[in-house]
Amino acid sequence: MSEPRESVDNACNAVYDALRYLGDASYAILPANVAHELGDLKKKFLSNVSSLIEKDIEWIDARVAGGDRLREEWKRACNRDRSEQAESL
User: Fold this and answer.
1) For residue 62, which of 73, 52, 70, 72 has the smallest C-alpha distance?
2) Are 27 and 39 in contact (CB under 8 A)?
3) CB within 8 A of 27, min separation 6: which ones?
4) Taking 60 as the threshold, does the pLDDT of residue 1 lie above it?
5) Which residues are CB-neighbours of 42 under 8 A, at least 6 positions away?
6) Cα separation of 25 and 28, whole Å?
7) SS3 40
8) CA distance 42 to 54
9) In 15, 83, 85, 89, which residue has its Cα 20 to 30 A from 43's Cα atom?
10) For 47, phi and psi rounded to 5 degrees?
11) Tell me, what's the pLDDT at 89?
12) For residues 38 and 27, is the Cβ–Cβ distance under 8 A?
């Protein structure tokens, strides 16, 4: 049973190696300083995207917490209204 798994692993490794080679070649064709600057630019861009995603996650967490607070306020107001209606009867 391990033979099919090994052949899949070998195929995946071959694909990864080919993609790695293409990635390396895409930087190798550039002058060294341009390749390094392009790499730095891509890293900065991805870092900013990562920061944006983290901020969005924080915003979602805050909105969910705010929704929980508002839901509790609505429950208290509804229960208070019901209590007042029951007392007036």
Assistant:
1) 70
2) yes
3) 35, 38, 39
4) no
5) none
6) 5
7) helix
8) 18
9) 15
10) -65, -40
11) 65
12) yes
Residues 44 and 38: their CA atoms lie apart, in Å, by 10
**What global pTM score does this model have?**
0.62
Q: Residue 62 in contact with residue 70, Cβ under 8 Å? A: no
State the residue for tokens 């991805």: 46
Q: For 63-76, write each residue's pLDDT tens digit.
A: 999 999 999 999 99
The b/e string for 10-49 (b: 16+ C-beta within 10 A; e otherwise) is eeeeeeeeeeeeeeeeeeeeeeeeeeeeeeeeeeeeeeee
Side-chain-side CA neighbours of residue 46 (13 Å): 6
Tokens of 69: 């607070």
70: its two tokens: 């508002």
